Amino acid sequence: MKDRELKALVALLDDEDYEVLTHVEERIISYGNPIIPFLEQEWEKNFNPNVQRRLEDLIHTLQFESLKARLGKWYSSAEQDLTEGMWIIATYQYPDLSLESIQESLQHIYYDSWLEFKTDAHPYDQVRILNSVLFNKLKFRANNKHFHSPANSMINRVLETKKGNPISLCVVYMLVAQRLKMPIYGVNLPSLFILTYKQDDLQFYINAFSRGLVFKEQDIDNYIKQLKLSPEDMFYQPCQNIDIIRRMLRNLTVSFEKLDEFEKADEVKQLLEIVSDGDILVL
Fold first, then answer.
1. From 42-51, 61-70, 125-134, 164-173, the region with the lowest mean pLDDT
2. Residue 279 has what pLDDT?
């Protein structure tokens, strides 16, 4: 009965009556994500461009609602695991992407780093080792040519292409470093995302966008002065995972706006609202 009803509903997607079409679409959406494979099969069979377009819209609506639910659940969780948060963002463009594939890719990088890592080395030397693996051996690099590409905010694409923006490269760096038990965290600087190594009385900073360049607090002082801003604690100290996810979504919004993909930009703003308590300013 369900399949017959669904086929009948799909057949009505060619109807030009607004009320009929609205009722049909609402009925199809009420079935939820389990019917996506059926809708995809119907899309392949159907050669009517209007029906195909409406099927595409329905599939996207179902996937987007599922994404919002996942993000809301992540936001409410105590852990707010960064890898999972990055995966959720990537599923906006790649809805079939699995969390396991991201974890597996990061584990490969961790293993390459672990083979050369020295737990008894000085922190500066440990950073040099990780820099050598990430930027020399594995060839991770800044995507200067397509700085505003949405792909820079998709962790699966960053892991595949080895190219990213400041925050996505920092995220990969940090996730690998923390697997190595290195106390490395993100820092929310204006217009630039960086990392800090912070343990006991030792703290220094790392710019993953510049191949792991190491610098000190005074360099941040100078950077803040150049921007004519007053120093704030957040410019020097580790931020939380939720701050990283918010900033990633802000960057993704800007990326879509620069491509004139305003519908996607508006949808990403909806995602940002879920995790931002109404604050969606771009940093």
1. 42-51
2. 53
In terms of Cα–Cα distance, which of 158, 116, 142, 161 is closest to 212? 142
pLDDT for res 20: 80
- Burial class of residue 226, CB neighbours in 10 A (0-12, 13-18, 19+): exposed
Residue 41 sits at the vertex; the CA angle it makes with 26 and 67, to the nearest 5 degrees, is: 55
45 CB-contact burial (10 Å; exposed 0-12 / middle 13-18 / buried 19+): exposed
Using CA atoms, how far residue 213 sits from 20, 127, 192, 198, 235, in Å, is: 60, 10, 14, 16, 17
CB 182 within 8 A of CB 119: no
Residue labelled with tokens 């993704």: 252
Please write the tens of the pLDDT for every residue from 176-218.
999 999 999 999 999 999 999 999 999 999 999 999 999 999 9
Which of 174, 184, 173, 192 lies closest to 251 in space, CA to CA?
192
- 149-159 per-position pLDDT tens digit: 999 999 999 99
The token pair at 223 is 């950077």
Rounded Cα–Cα distance for residues 40 and 37 (Å): 5
What is residue 48's DSSP assignment?
A: -
- Using a cut of 0.85, tell me whether the model's pTM lies above it: yes
> Whole-angstrom Cα distance, residue 194 to residue 166?
7
Nearest C-alpha neighbor of 248 from the set 141, 170, 176, 145? 170
